[in-house]
Amino acid sequence: MSRVYVYGDEAGDLAFKPPTQGISRYFIIGTVTLDDHSIGSELLELRRELAWNGLHLDCFHATRDKPHVRERVYDIIANHDLRFDATLLDKKKAKPDTYEDPLYFYKLAWYLHFKYVAEKVADARDELLVVASSLQIKRKVTTTKAAIHEAVTDVVNQVSPTVTYQCAFTPAKTDPCLQIADYMTWAIQRKHEMGDLRSYELIEHQVDSEFEPFEPGNKIYY
Q1: Whole-Å CA distances, 193 to 59, 134, 153, 188, 190
Q2: By CB distance 3.0 to 4.6 Å, which of 34, 93, 97, 190 could disulfide with 214?
Q3: CATH of the domain at 165
Q4: Cβ density class 124-151: b for 16+ within 10 Å, e for less
Q5: Is residue 50 part of a domain?
Q6: Containing structural domain, residue 180
Q7: Strand pairing of 83-90 and 207-211?
């Protein structure tokens, strides 16, 4: 028996119309699976080092961080034993009745992701902690935070391979392991939305899956 830690973030938006600047093609759920938190300690130490050199950061955030900071963060990530999984939903292939309610689509994305990943990261003997980034979720879904938390918890209830589990919801800036999920999901998003492989190539060896459940579909809805 072991305790498995899963940290989740998402990328993209829940606007269902042709991709333009500011509108994504994909909605992505990404999770980092760890069996210890030594990497989080290293990221905190990096923040202290950067502060000593005059760069004061509340947290690491891939979109906002300067290139030289991203390089340092990816260097730490790439040298740790961790697993990353991403589920990418091509929004133009989503049936309209799945996205009339953004919360329903958000829950569907988590369900498809965790149903695919859960049995690969834990078994019946393990303990499982799933931590989702409440700040990122709140920005993208116009519904109550409690409803979003309930949606993710219900997904874990349905598909967890172990009966010993907990779900938590924490602002990304408070937990460096959520910041890892942000960085890795950002790299996946850059690859699929823009064809930019620079960040992805740094962490490709840790990417265990890029699951596209809508990929076989041929019908385009917008």
Answers
A1: 25, 24, 29, 8, 5
A2: 93
A3: 3.30.420.10
A4: eebebebbbbbbbbeebbeeeeeebbeb
A5: yes
A6: 3-211
A7: parallel
pLDDT digits (tens, 9 = 90+) for 51-81: 999 999 999 999 999 999 999 999 999 999 9
Residues sharing a CB contact under 8 Å with residue 116, sequence separation 6 or more, in sequence order: 85, 87, 209, 211, 213
Distance CA 207, CA 78 (A): 11
217 in a domain, yes or no?
no
The domain total for the chain is 1
Q: Is the overall model pTM greater than 0.90, yes or no?
A: yes
- Is the residue at 216 inside a domain? no
What was the pLDDT predicted at 28? Answer: 97
High-pLDDT (> 70) share of the chain, %: 96
